Amino acid sequence: MGDTLVNLAHQTAFFNLTFGNVIMVVVALVLLYLAIVKEYEPLLLLPISFGMLLVNLYPPIMEDGGLLHYFFMLDEWTILPSLIFMGVGALTDFGPLIANPKSFVLGAAAQFGVFGAFFMAMAMGFTEAQAAAVSIIGGADGPTSIFLAMKLGQRELMGPIAVAAYSYMALVPIIQPPIMKALTTEAERKIKMEQLRSVSKRERILFPIIVTIVVCTLLPSTAPLVGMLMLGNLFRESGVVRQLQETASNAMMYIVVIFLGTSVGATTSAEAFLKWTTIKIVILGLVAFAFGTAAGVLFGKLMCKLSGGKINPLIGSAGVSAVPMAARVSQKVGAEADPTNFLLMHAMGPNVAGVIGTAVAAGVFMAIFGV
Fold this sequence. Notes:
By secondary structure, the protein is mostly helical. It contains 21 helices and no strands. It has helices at residues 2-11, 19-36, 42-57, 67-76, 79-91, 95-99, 103-109, 112-123, 128-135, 142-151, 155-170, 172-183, 186-189, 201-218, 223-238, 242-249, 251-265, 270-273, 276-306, 325-337, 344-368. It is globular. The model has no long low-confidence stretch (mean pLDDT 89).
């Protein structure tokens, strides 16, 4: 009986937890608090933080044969990131981008964070491929970060990269506003933009088809991401496959988020995560995201000047890929300056452009490295 009780006790987590595991459990609990109590993008943060909790209480859950190992394999095969893009396309109205093509400039401006982080990562000792995989965090695009890391063969960095990217996506409401307010005046934040023109059904249908042809011809390696994004949007805009649009934007999307979130969180075991390399990735990601936000706002200010004060610079911050969180933050900061100011639809243009822009940036890196 005594031996049985001793063996049973040794099977509990108390005898197997390391100090690092305890640290990661505390981090997971903090993230759960932010997701549940503060409601910081809970659809992302809750499964990620719970996966983090599970793997540090029971590490074998991510080993070959463990439940989350099989979820993670779908990440490795880049299936889940592509399906997420299909769901985003089915959910998102591309009309604001079509109505205001200038938004592409703001979406492109935010990619300065990506390429700035690439050179910073190189300076910090990462190889070129590692630096490229890390730098895409600057676009605040979790699926693209996972996709590029796996395509460049950076499996060992995929966990920290994905967690950093998704964490910054979830923390957009905290990170972006101070940067936006620091770079704009109150008068600029109060600028009211003219109502966007109506976009015809023909334009809405042609847009995803044309973007697919152009982007995938120039950068074929982006087809899994850009192609699925545009296919999802075509489901939405064609009006002839309502069942597919509803499935892609609801049931399928939420199932994929569960798999992706928990498996990404489960890559954060103490042994894999508590390293200096991980700390550098997290710091680089934050700097890249902040730089991308700042670049978008500054280009917004330039466009404001060139347009004679008709463009609110705040919409430039939405040029990162966090859809629709970044657009909502632009709306929130603008409404704080003037409660009657409605910037959401104007900000959705740069936001959609940012999704496409980050996928293109990933395609550029894959082309450079011959993937």
